[in-house]
């Protein structure tokens, strides 16, 4: 059987004495999108940040294409092929679109193996809007364009796994549809994606697999098809939908 792109096993994460993720296990197969859902405070961002090395897990393992990464630094994990697009996007607002992408490119090339599957041209081909706006300061882009730029920056590092933390946050419905399109394109490119979302409809539109967290515990895991057929499987844990 093929090795999973990302395999998380029995992960415990704490802030001080307070445990916020309990024995989280999940597997992401290559070229698939796994939606990690849950109410506010369920532990979704904490989980994603732990995968990316920003928090140390108290216990458990995180394997990227079979390789344990839970002891690596965030930079080491990024180099190994897993990139986080954080909540709030964190682009450089005073730099242009092009400069933002170039900074990401330089950081990636300083320590890679010479293979550049993603480059400026390919990012522009994927997100035409970024090409149109390449001389514009990133801080003046719309929310949706900033999200595309944040994803573009991550792609410049040639990830095999992308971690997307609430990409639709604060975006108008039309723009959310563009984000959904972008995620589908990346999936068609065989990227493997963990998507944290409050937007249930967006998540179900693009996901293959669904994991629902409630106060840091997995309360549902299964195929997105099953949730599409019976939304109640997930919605009863999500409250607001
Ligand atoms: N730096 C921190 N120190 C202490 N507790 C934290 C910290 N960050 C988050 N928490 C707590 O950990 C729990 C999980 O938070 P987390 O941000 O992972 O949830 P989430 O599911 O991503 O929710 P949201 O959608 O609101 O971002 C919450 O109870 C939160 O208050």
Automatic annotation (TrEMBL):
PROSITE patterns from the entry?
A: ABC_TRANSPORTER_1 (PS00211), ABC_TRANSPORTER_2 (PS50893)
Q: Enumerate the spans annotated as ABC transporter domain.
A: 6-240
For this protein, the record's InterPro entries field holds:
AAA+_ATPase (IPR003593), ABC_transporter-like_ATP-bd (IPR003439), ABC_transporter-like_CS (IPR017871), BCAA_Transport_ATP-bd_LivF (IPR052156), P-loop_NTPase (IPR027417)
Tell me one GO molecular function of this protein. ATP binding
Q: Which segments does the entry list as coiled coil?
A: none
Residue spans crossing the bilayer? none
Q: Which UniProt keywords apply?
A: Amino-acid transport, ATP-binding, Cell membrane, Membrane, Nucleotide-binding, Transport
Q: Is ATP-binding included in the keywords of this UniProt record? A: yes
Q: Which Pfam families match?
A: ABC_tran
The family this protein is said to belong to: Belongs to the ABC transporter superfamily.
**What protein does this entry describe?**
ABC transporter ATP-binding protein
Organism of derivation = Variovorax ginsengisoli
Lineage, highest ranks first: Bacteria, Pseudomonadati, Pseudomonadota, Betaproteobacteria, Burkholderiales
């Amino acid at each position: 059987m093929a090795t999973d792109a990302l395999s998380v096993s029995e992960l415990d994460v704490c802030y001080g004495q307070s445990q916020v993720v309990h024995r989280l296990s999940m597997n992401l197969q290559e070229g698939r999108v796994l939606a990690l859902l849950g109410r506010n405070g369920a532990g979704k961002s904490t989980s994603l940040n732990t995968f990316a090395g920003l928090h140390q897990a108290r216990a458990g393992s995180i394997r990227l294409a079979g390789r344990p990464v839970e002891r690596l630094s965030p930079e080491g994990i990024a180099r190994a092929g897993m990139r986080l697009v954080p909540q709030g996007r964190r682009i450089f607002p005073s730099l242009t679109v092009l400069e933002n992408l170039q900074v990401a490119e330089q950081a990636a090339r300083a320590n890679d193996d010479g293979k550049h599957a993603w480059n400026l041209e390919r990012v522009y081909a994927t997100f035409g809007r970024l090409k149109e706006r390449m001389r514009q300061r990133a801080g003046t882009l719309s929310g949706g364009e900033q999200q595309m730029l944040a994803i573009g920056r991550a792609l410049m590092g040639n990830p095999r796994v992308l971690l997307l933390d609430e990409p639709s946050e604060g975006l108008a419905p039309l723009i959310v549809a563009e984000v959904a399109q972008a995620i589908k394109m990346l999936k068609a490119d065989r990227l493997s994606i963990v998507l944290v979302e409050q937007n249930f409809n967006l998540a179900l539109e693009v996901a293959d697999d669904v994991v629902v967290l409630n106060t840091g515990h997995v309360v549902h895991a299964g195929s997105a098809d099953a949730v599409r057929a019976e939304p109640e499987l997930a919605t009863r844990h999500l409250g607001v939908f």
